[in-house]
Every structure is written in structure tokens, then in C-alpha cells.
Amino acid sequence: TQLSDIPPKNKWREIIRENHIDNALNQKLRKLIELEESGGTVTVYTAPVSDKKKMKEVIELVKNRYGEINGIIHCAGIVKPGIISAKEKGTIENVFLSKVEGTLILNDLAKDLHLDFFVLCSSTTSITTPFAESDYSAANAFLDVFAQYSNSVNKFYTLSINWPGWKEIGQLANLKMLKGTEEWKKSALDLAISPQEGLEAFKLALSSDLNQVIVSPESLENFSLKRTASFIPETTQLDDIKIDDEENEKTNVEENLALIWKDILGVMENGKDDNFFELGGHSLLAMQLISAIRKTFLVDLNLENILDEPTFSAICKKINELISLKKVMQ
Questions:
Q1: Using N-to-C axis directions, what is the helix angle for 52-66 and 102-110, rounded to 10°?
Q2: I need a labelling partner for 238 at 20 to 30 A (CA). Which of 9, 73, 113, 177 fits?
Q3: pTM over 0.90
Q4: Sheet holding 117-123: strands in order across?
């Protein structure tokens, strides 16, 4: 099943030939055609895995058409990068829906089936807990624990596979990046596995008889280091920034913040009332802004300061207040 509608099977080749669809769906249709050409039969049902009624209907349709269901591979999931304090409740709930609620629903429905296996597609993010993916990491950690629970109470075999990023297909390949995070995606794709490597890893994992299998393209030593590596976003053009004497301090704050502002947002000029978020800023760029301000002015500006008053003049004012407070405390 999948959440979004897919074109009728008799239109797949025509759509690919005309290339009037997005790249992700184009790739999906090509893979479905390959499956059928290799002797398989593909039937796609549209249903959200978090809707128990619809999933039950899909299971009945499959049983009526093909007979017994032998296995379930649960791959659903969405990624919505953002730091915790800037995330909205609805965003977090949507990330949890497919991974957590969907797993519980499938497990409940599977009790009436005679499954050989129930595979949960988790992620290495549950182990490395990367910056800006707290909800996604937590949702995948649930899958890892649930596999152990399921194997203790169910008759069928449950396996959680912690996948890394995949090249060409999957969430990482199709992930739309926020401004300022493009290099992260490029670096992640350099370390991603190919579809063929993923297929081989899946075969090995399914035959392992383990509760959980981690698939990593890196050595375990490098992989483990990611758990303790801090996220230190850096700006790229801060060489011209200077702090002069106290008399010119306020002017220097404005001039230096303008350089940081330009570097992060890519704007040529800025006004005092310009709003960071209205100019294309988001929570991850805000962290880069904070990092650069701390490095330049040696003050402890925090994210709440930016979220509460995101204009250029308000941030300048806050920096000057923190500089004055620091002098009083010395």
C-alpha cells in the first residue's frame, strides 16, 4: 500500500514515456514494471497505514485475490527536519503516525494472519540521533524496541532493520532540503548504499533470526562516533568581522551582524525591520545564525531570542544587551 494515489497499471509505460510526472514517481513506476517483467505480480492499494479500517479492508482484498498473506514489510515514514523548540505538535504527530500508530495497527491485524515475518524498516537515526530529527529518531527507536516485544508475544518473526540512506531511491534521495542544508544531503548521499546493496542486506537480515539488524556503509567505529559528534553549523565568510572599541561598539554590532546575515540568508542588503524568517530563514539556519553570533560577539544568544524577536534591529539590540550584561558581570 501507499498513501498517495498511483496511476492505473495500463498507463504506467505511457506516463514514463511522456515523462509528465515527478522523478520519484517515475522511478517507482519503473521499479514496478521491472518486478512484473521478472515474473512478479504487482497490485497497489492506496491506504494510510495509520487508518485501521482501511488497512483491514486492504488485507481482506489481498486475501480474497491471492489467498494467505505470508509477510508484511512496513516501510512507511516521513522526515520533517527541525529543532525541538521550533517543531509544532501536529508535525511531530504526523511523523509518529506511520511509524508508531501504523506499526500497532499492522501488529493487531496480523494476529488473524499466518505470517512468516513482519519486517519493520527502521533507520540508523534511532542510533545516531542526528540533529533536527528528534521525532523521527524517536519513532524509529520505537520500531527497534517493538520488534523485541513482538518476538516475545507473537508467533510470527518480527525484525527491525536500521537502514542508512539509499542512493537513487527512498527518503534521502527524494528529500527536499531546506535552504542551507544542501551540503548535508550531498554528504549523506556519498555514504548511502545502492539499491542492490540494500537488497543483499535485506536478504541477510531476514535470514539472521535477530530482533534487530543495523545496516551501515561505514565501519562500526565511525558509525559509533556519530552518537557523540556535536552539530556545529558554520557560516562561510566571516573573515571581515571585527569588534572595535567601546565607542563604536553598537555600530560594529550592526555592521558585523549584517555580514553574518548576508552570509546565511544570501541577501545583498538588509533593513533594520527585516524579519529573519520572512527572508527565507528557518530553524536550522537560525542555529547557524546563533553559532556565528556566539563565535563573533562571545555572547550567549539562544534560539528563543530569535524566535521571539526575529528582526535585524531586535537581534542587534539583544546582542548589545548581552555584551553590556557581560561587562557588568566581569
A1: 40
A2: 177
A3: no
A4: 71-74, 117-123, 157-163, 212-214
